[in-house]
Amino acid sequence: MNSLNQIIEKFPEIKNVESVKPLTAGLINQTYLVTTQEGTPNFILQCINHNIFKNVDLLQNNIECVTSHIRKKLADAGETDLDRKVLRFAMADNGKTYYFDGEKYWRACVFVEGSVTLDTVTPESSYLVGLKFGEFEAMLSDMSCHLEETIPDFHNMEFRIKQLRDAVNANPVGRLDKVKDLVAEIEKDANNMCRAERYYREGLLPKRICHCDTKVSNMLFDKEGNVLCIIDLDTVMSSFIFSDYGDFLRSAANTGQEDDKNLDNVKFNFEIFKSFTKGYIESARCFLLPIEIDLLPFAVTLFPYMQAVRFLTDYINGDTYYQIKYPEHNYVRTLAQYKLYKETVAAIDDMRSYIETLI
Ligand code: GN1
Ligand code: MG
Question: Which residues in the chain come in under a pLDDT of 50?
Answer without folding.
Answer: 1
